[in-house]
Amino acid sequence: MRWLKFTAAGKTSWGLVEGDKVTTVTGDPLGEWTKTSQTHALGDVKIELPLVPRTFYCVGLNYLKHLKEAADKAGTVPDIPGRPEIGYRAQNALIAHDENVVIPASATEKIHYEGELVVVIGRKAKHLTEAGAMDCVFGYTIGNDVSERTWQKADRGLWRSKNADTFKPMGPWIETSVDLATMETAIRVNGKETGRFRTNDMIFGIVPFLVELTKYFTLWPGDVIWMGTDGASPDLKDGDVVEIDVTGIGTLRNRFVKEKA
Amino acid sequence: MRWLKFTAAGKTSWGLVEGDKVTTVTGDPLGEWTKTSQTHALGDVKIELPLVPRTFYCVGLNYLKHLKEAADKAGTVPDIPGRPEIGYRAQNALIAHDENVVIPASATEKIHYEGELVVVIGRKAKHLTEAGAMDCVFGYTIGNDVSERTWQKADRGLWRSKNADTFKPMGPWIETSVDLATMETAIRVNGKETGRFRTNDMIFGIVPFLVELTKYFTLWPGDVIWMGTDGASPDLKDGDVVEIDVTGIGTLRNRFVKEKA
Fold first, then answer.
1. Residues in domain Rv2993c-like N-terminal (chains A, B) (predicted)?
2. In chain B, which residues have their Cβ closer than 8 Å to the Cβ of A52?
3. Could you tell me which CATH class the domain A49-258 is placed in?
4. What torsion do the CA atoms of B255, B258, B260, B261 make, to the nearest 10 degrees?
5. Summary count for chain A: helices (H), strands (E)
6. What is the pLDDT of residue B73?
7. Residue A141 has what pLDDT?
8. Using one digit for the tens of pLDDT, what is the confidence trace for B2-58?
9. Over 90: is that where the pLDDT of A61 sits?
């Protein structure tokens, strides 16, 4: 099932997407819901942010090829994580599909995308085992972990570099059924492909993360875990359109615009 | 005004505290509300977490004496922040006044408290000026930024060390009117004072943080900013009771209990 949060005729609701049609649902996919008889053409509705997570988890370094390439370039040995460790992002930064990423006036030209698979948690979970871990997953969406690399080097932590308003596009919808083994993530800038990797080719996959995190944390319905990215981004500039395509989910598209000083 | 989230007779509501009495309010202090005629004795109600912030901001190093003492001990020069920078904490870790901090079975003995003033945001704000900054503040509460120092050194980021379940007690209530200039924070372990500092003796105060943050972030009603701590904590052990007292707000009290392995 493909769950879309949308607005039509001034009303925001959940809906189920089939082809280019969305059927309005009352209630909430993470709770109780009922399908109605009302439908819209997908092109006629405003796509909204699927949800604001209670806790916003994000994996840093999680793709070997990316780490290896970076280390090769620097002439160093890759610092490969020895265990699944997590970071956090800020809810203020979230925006929906087709909304604009606003590059702050004070930012440098080092604005980069990171195309990521996003795991959406469906039920409260702690102390998950390997066998049962995936039962807490509701579905999947796509995230763009936009970063200002100059700030990333200069700041304590990642406060501005990854969490400025609009730096976390997420969407367009939540897909409940995917085939992790065969998925690919492809990224395009202004229609031209700039990156492609096997989505599940992670150093630590979803199950190890769920097991490790829930040793310490309770996951709640609506929490999201952004799973990291592979490859590198060109510097993005005013007017660029970034599309992140993940097999079986869809395409997250956002235009980057420079804030007026 | 002193706003308390509480449960009585199975019902959770907001209330206004006067002395040892709480008057039930319908609605929400950050929106519309109406005082009812129903009252309870404060001692008869279960005190709840005041709110779950949309974004959970937390200042790291923000008290000069603390930085200087640590540097003196290490024989180094204090690394004093040159500008207000912010971090994040995880919502999963929040608990209420009088709920137990559960020390994970795998944690070391290096469990420390950090007594902090918490700023609660009352309205949406961006690009605040120095003159208008405080208008977005709804009130103040108290936070205990519990830390596992061994994990803090070993982990990438602060994921477990500061964000394990129950590591973020916050409360007991939100006080809308305080006198920042005269406030003191006092911390007691099992009734014995182990720390005391002037609450507003910060390297960067509330106004500089609000101005700097809102250059990049939109603050939302219910967001919280934990303002950092001074002094050091002894190692806390199973059964210890930590009280953090802030003049004009009240006392946040939590027992520390060790998880059974």
1. 1-47
2. 54
3. alpha beta
4. 160
5. 4, 19
6. 67
7. 98
8. 999 999 999 999 999 999 999 999 999 999 999 999 999 999 999 999 999 999 999
9. no
CATH code for the domain defined by A1-47: 2.30.30.370
Chain-chain contact of B92 with A217 (C-beta, under 8 angstroms): yes
Residues 156..175 of B with a Cβ closer than 8 Å to A: which?
A: 156-157, 159-160, 163-165
Confidence band of A73 (pLDDT split at 50, 70, 90):
low
- Give pLDDT tens digits for A111-140: 999 999 999 999 999 999 999 999 999 999
DSSP assignment letter at A219:
B
Q: What is the DSSP string of A143-178?
A: EE--EEHHHHHHSSTTHHHHHSTT-EEEEEEEES--
Ranges of each domain in chain A: 1-47, 49-258
Contacts of B155 in chain A (CB under 8 A): 85
Chain B hits for A89, CB-CB cut-off 8 Å, are 88
CA–CA separation, A206 and A227 (whole Å): 8
Radius of gyration of chain B from its Cα atoms, rounded to whole angstroms: 18
B1-48 CATH choice from 3.30.1490.20, 3.90.550.10, 2.30.30.370, 2.30.110.10: 2.30.30.370
The chain B residue lying nearest A155, using CA atoms, is B85
| 3-class SS string, A44-106 | HCEECCCCCCCCEEECCCCCHHHHHHHHHHHCCCCCCCCCCCCEECCHHHEECCCCCEEECCC
Average pLDDT rounded to a whole number, residues B106-123: 97
Average pLDDT of the segment spanning B195-207: 96
Tokens (6 digits) for A123: 């039920």
| Token pair in block for residue A96 | 């929906």
| CA gap A201, A180 in Å, rounded | 9
Tokens of A110: 């080092």
> In this structure, are residues B64 and B72 in contact, taking their beta carbons and an 8 Å threshold?
no
C-alpha A24, offset from chain centre: 24
**Least confident residue range of A8-17, A68-77, A247-256:** A68-77
Query: Cis link prior to B221 (omega < 30° from 0)?
Result: no
